[in-house]
Every structure is written in structure tokens, then in C-alpha cells.
Amino acid sequence: MAASGAIPGLFFCFAAMVLLIFVSVSAPTWNTISFLNADGISFGVFGYTGSQAHVGYYFPTWLPDSNSDTLHNLTYALILYPIAAGLAGISVLFGLCGAGYHRAGTVFMSLTAALALLCTLIVWVISTSLFGVERNRLRDNGVDATWGNATWLGLGALVSLLIGFCTAACGVFGSYRRTRRF
User: Fold this and answer.
1) Tens digits of per-residue pLDDT, 163-172?
2) How far out from the chain centre does Cα 133 lie?
3) What is the pLDDT of residues 105-140, one digit of tens each?
4) 150-171 helix and 80-100 helix, angle to the nearest 10 degrees
5) Hey, is 113 helix, strand or coil?
6) Angle 44-86-108 (CA atoms, 0-180°, nearest 5)?
């Protein structure tokens, strides 16, 4: 018998997982999803348009006032997006166990959703700060720089994980009895 208390948390954790996967495969892998767009260059988790995908990167040298050790080091923290996607995926697996069988799955879904929420909150603040500073520097030097959609996808995942955690925590107290038919 399915436990209906786990279903809303499962839905929101699944939605957050999908959004975090989209953010994780942003530029240079998928150029339509990016944090910042500047003169035809899209910046993502693992690099920018035309660069090799790797953890931590320097901004292109032709962009004025872009490279500093602080900005470079902050790009390493963007690896938390795929980690948060993995944690959200684990919470979905626990949610499936909770929805299909036992309360323990819902408890573990709630705990892993909280961990994914914390990870997403930290990386969203870092990415918004990083690309906000870079956007302002580029605009001050006359470069047309605009926000990409990955920032808002990350915010959507953050809100979805918050709702998923709350509903999963409330779902722990749902009905998990099995009815016996004679």
C-alpha cells in the first residue's frame, strides 16, 4: 500500500533534481543554459562557451578586469550543483521507498532533502555573488553582460527542495498501515 504522505515530498524532490541536473549540464556542455552571457560567451558550472569542461576555470583573458584569484577559486565551488543534484536524486530514491513501503524511506528522504537544500543554498549564494560581481565588472567596462537562466533554475530548485523537505518532514507522520484483507 502506498503511503500518500510521502508523495508530495517525492514530487518536489524530483522536480528539484531535474532542475539541478539542467543547471549542472550548463555551458560549455549545453550553451542554452548559463549563469551569465557576455558578448556571445555563456558561462556555466564547468566552464564557458569554447572552453574545455573542467572544475574551476579562469574567465577569458580578453574580457576586461575579469581574472582574479578570488573569482577563480569561487568557480571551484560550482561543483556543489552536481553534488546537490545527486543528493536530490538520492532523496527521490528514498522517497520511492517511503511511498511504496516503509516510513524509514520518508525519514531518509527528509534528511537527504535537507542536505541537498543546504548544499543548493550555499552554491546558489556563491554563484549569484560570483556572476553578479563579474556582470558588474563587465558592464563597468562597456561589455554587454546579462544574467542567464541557470541562476533562476537554481533558485527554482532551491525553493522546490525547501517545499520537498517540509512536505517530506510532514509526510513522516502519515499513515503507513497496511490493510489486511481476509
Assistant:
1) 999 999 998 8
2) 20
3) 999 999 999 999 999 999 999 999 999 999 999 999
4) 30
5) helix
6) 145
2, burial (CB in 10 Å: exposed 0-12, middle 13-18, buried 19+): exposed
Q: What is the pLDDT of residues 54-66, one digit of tens each?
A: 999 998 988 887 7
Cα–Cα distance measured from residue 157 to residue 153, given in angstroms and rounded to the nearest whole number: 6
**Residue 95, CA distances (Å) to 52, 58, 104, 169 in order:** 36, 39, 9, 11
Q: CA-CA distance, 117 to 46, in Å (whole number)?
A: 21
Q: Is 71 exposed, middle or buried (0-12, 13-18, 19+ CB in 10 A)?
A: middle
Kindly give the pairing relationship between strand 41-43 and strand 36-38. antiparallel
The phi and psi torsions of 10 (rounded to 5 degrees) equal -60, -45
CA nearest 44: which of 166, 120, 132, 131?
131
Phi, psi of 41 (to 5 degrees): -105, 130
